[in-house]
């Protein structure tokens, strides 16, 4: 069954499916055969095993046409992927720019927090000094009122 006559009118039996067919319209898996006709000697084709020369309802498709369709579809997909990749790179560049801005802003905020912490510690030290002066004054007033 590796060689089947293929003098059939293929236009009536070709599938609407592009690329290398895997199933016939009837649902059966297609096989690949080699033409042994004078018109197409040695040319590969895909055909439903249920089909016959008289039955035009089953799949028949030349393999070289299928391969060309596969390559065309792959090329179209590749072009789309190139565009998508280009858009992705643009998006990544924009995201990196935004990330750098946010990183810079975070660093500014961390520096501001550090300055606030320093000022808070300075205020605490000043409050301790004021507290010590207040306690000292309170003790002096208490001693003055007690001994005077």
TrEMBL record:
Family matches, as Pfam families: Zn_ribbon_GRF
PANTHER family assigned to the protein according to its UniProt record, in alphabetical order: ZINC ION-BINDING PROTEIN
Region (Disordered): 1-21
Segments of skewed composition (Low complexity): 1-11
PROSITE patterns: ZF_GRF (PS51999)
GO molecular function: zinc ion binding
Keyword annotations of the record: Coiled coil, Membrane, Metal-binding, Transmembrane, Transmembrane helix, Zinc, Zinc-finger
Superkingdom assignment: Eukaryota
Organism encoding this protein: Raphanus sativus (Radish)
Coiled coil location: 99-126
Signal sequence annotation: none
Protein name per the record: Uncharacterized protein At1g43920, Chloroplastic-like
């Amino acid at each position: 069954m590796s060689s089947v006559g293929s003098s059939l009118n293929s236009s009536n039996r070709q599938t609407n499916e592009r690329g290398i067919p895997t199933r016939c319209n009837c649902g059966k898996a297609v096989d690949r055969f080699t033409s042994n006709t004078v018109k197409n000697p040695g040319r590969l084709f895909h055909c439903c095993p249920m089909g016959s020369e008289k039955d035009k309802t089953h799949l028949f498709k030349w393999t070289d046409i299928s391969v060309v369709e596969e390559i065309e579809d792959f090329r179209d997909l590749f072009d789309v992927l190139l565009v998508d990749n280009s858009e992705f790179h643009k998006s990544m560049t924009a995201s990196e720019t935004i990330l750098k801005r946010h990183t810079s802003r975070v660093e500014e905020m961390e520096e501001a927090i550090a300055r606030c912490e320093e000022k808070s510690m300075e205020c605490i030290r000043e409050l301790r000094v004021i507290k010590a002066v207040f306690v000292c004054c309170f003790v002096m007033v208490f001693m003055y009122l007690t001994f005077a």
